[in-house]
From TrEMBL:
Keywords: DNA-binding. Residues 37-56 bind DNA. It comes from Agromyces aurantiacus. This is TetR/AcrR family transcriptional regulator. Residues 14-74 form the HTH tetR-type domain. The keyword Iron does not apply.
Length: 191
């Protein structure tokens, strides 16, 4: 029986799984989907190859786990940025600025790398449900700003944010892009 490196077996398993997800995420960003294999992931995590299958039945399961972790972290950071801003337009500015800063820091790299993943339909649906949760803060902010039909407007705002993120990913200054996106939203959505 292998020696555990945590106070409990459950904590050990959670740490092992997290190590695999971190290793796979790093490979995904550095090498793309083709670089993510059970062998490469376990080697990078410093685990036996067979341990991959103790935590993930398929590569799709691992890719979805990477995405869920990234989306969860992204959502928590957006929530933190919003918590420190006044309701209404200042909170919209905080949302835009945080989104562009996080993109500049490379935290959107995993989403870009996963865009081309050919996931099993059931796993893709799991991923889309998590991604849809990212609209929640946008809907809330738009509601605070008095936007009619904030759910519908949130989809348009998400598209504008995505365009800004693409600019940042391609080298544009995230602060300038954040200002442009904010102005576009104030003039177009909040007007």
């Amino acid at each position: 029986m292998p020696k555990i490196t945590a106070p409990t077996v459950a904590e050990h398993r959670a740490a092992q799984r997290a190590a695999l997800v971190r290793a796979a995420g790093a490979i995904l960003v550095a090498e793309g989907l083709a670089g993510v294999s059970p062998r490469a992931v376990t080697e990078r995590a410093g685990l036996a190859r067979s341990s991959f299958y103790d935590y993930f039945g398929t590569k799709d399961d691992l890719l979805v786990a990477i995405a869920i972790d990234a989306i969860t972290e992204w959502d928590a950071e957006i929530e933190e940025a919003l918590a420190n801003a006044e309701a209404g337009a200042p909170r919209l500015r905080a949302l835009v600025e945080a989104t562009m800063a996080m993109t500049a820091d490379g935290r959107h790299g995993i989403a870009g790398a996963l865009r081309d993943a050919d996931l099993h339909p059931s796993r893709y649906e799991d991923l889309m449900q998590m991604h849809d949760a990212l609209l929640r803060p946008v809907v809330a902010v738009l509601g605070e700003c008095g936007v009619r039909e904030p759910e519908r407007a949130a989809v348009l705002v998400q598209g504008t944010l995505a365009a800004g993120m693409q600019l940042v990913t391609h080298g544009a200054d995230h602060r300038a892009v954040a200002e442009d996106v904010y102005r576009l939203l104030v003039d177009g959505v909040l007007a």
